[in-house]
Amino acid sequence: MRIASIPTRGRTLDYAAAVYDFCEPFLLLGRQAEYDRHLLELLATRPTDRVLDLGCGTGLLCRRIADRLDPHAGGEAVGIDAAGRMIGLARRKRGGPGCRFEAMAAEALDFPPASFDAVVSSLFFHHVDRELKRMSLEEAYRVLKPGGRLIIADMHTPTTRMGALVSHVARWFFLQPQIAENTRGLLPGLIAAAGFATPHLAATYFGYIAVFTSHKP
Ligand SMILES: C[S@@+](CC[C@H](N)C(=O)[O-])C[C@H]1O[C@@H](n2cnc3c(N)ncnc32)[C@H](O)[C@@H]1O
User: Fold this and answer.
1) I want to staple 194 with a disulfide (CB 3.0 to 4.6 A). Which of 51, 81, 137, 199 is the partner?
2) Is 6 domain-assigned?
3) Nearest residue CA, atom 24 of ligand 1?
């Protein structure tokens, strides 16, 4: 069944859904498993946790999170993406008990307040403009329980010449000013402004991706 995409100003990837799983290993230079494993370690889930993945794409990270949860004890990983085709693929390839996918915009989450123990997001925030980044972070804050963890991995101020080159080429090749906002270093300030504890830079990858951890006080 075809799933309708959700209207958003974000750069959705309906057009790339069918090839996304083949391309991502190249974009992450063959280190996708290591990168995902690190995010899982930082998430440090308990089996009963409810975890939300913003801009989940085809749902691989969300599936890996779900594999660490116990659906019989209430554990659940929920992936949302505004691209209907991404959600269709995620449901087919990675859905199952304790792992569900919904077409939804990160800036307008259809979940009650304080309904998740953790929110994670990988490579989503460079797809939305500053205002949507702000709204998405406020929504993440709203749906997290007090003490809930936030993990964001995304493009940030480059730390190597190669990282700077990749960021610059990506910004102009994809004509995506949202990338330039990230590389100017906007994310940590926006995370704090949404009410989260001062974000901690937990890791950098490839000279252009930073992993931030924080929590809702
Ligand atoms: C580069 S992909 C990242 C996918 C996955 N998280 C990963 O790490 O491979 C960015 C995703 O964000 C989605 N997206 C863009 N704008 C969005 C929005 N406003 N709300 C939810 N998802 C959005 C796109 O459709 C796309 O699937």
Assistant:
1) 137
2) no
3) 12
* Burial class of residue 205 (count of CB atoms within 10 Å of its CB; 0-12, 13-18, 19+): middle
- For 175, the domain range is 14-215
Q: Considering its fold, how many domains does the chain have in total?
A: 1
Can you tell me the distance from the alpha carbon of 210 to that of 20, in angstroms, rounded to the nearest whole number? 21
Q: Which helix (H) or strand (E) holds 167?
A: helix 161-173
CA-based end-to-end distance of the chain: 41
CA atoms of 14 and 90, how far apart (whole Å): 12
Report d(CA 133, CA 43) in Å as an integer: 21
Is residue 139 assigned to a domain?
A: yes
> pLDDT tens-digit profile of 50-104?
999 999 999 999 999 999 999 999 999 999 999 999 999 999 999 999 999 999 9
184 assigned to some structural domain: yes
Ligand 1: centre distance to CA 23 (Å): 14
Residue 184, burial from CB neighbour count under 10 angstroms (0-12, 13-18, 19+) = exposed
We report the CATH number of the domain holding residue 31 as 3.40.50.150
In this structure, is residue 177 part of a structural domain? yes
Of residues 57, 48, 49, the one with CA closest to residue 80 = 57
Pocket of ligand 1 (CB under 6 A): 8, 10-13, 24, 55-57, 61, 81-83, 86, 105-107, 122-124, 127-128, 132
